[in-house]
Amino acid sequence: MRGADLRGSTISGLQAELRDLQGAIVAPLQAIDITALFGLDVQPDEL
After folding, report:
1. What is the pTM of this model?
2. First-to-last CA distance in the chain?
3. How does pLDDT run across 4-47, given as a tens digit for each residue?
4. Could you tell me the CA-to-CA distances from 6 to 2, 11, 39 in Å, in that order?
């Protein structure tokens, strides 16, 4: 998907491996959703 622009696309339910998404263009909120696919827990900084 290198260079594929996914902004504005619905990505919920997406099943992919990291190598499949490398180089894809996503919106910031999509990036948060994608990190969940890989088991990451995104949280705000502690102040």
Report:
1. 0.71
2. 37
3. 999 999 988 888 888 888 999 999 989 888 888 888 888 889 87
4. 11, 8, 21
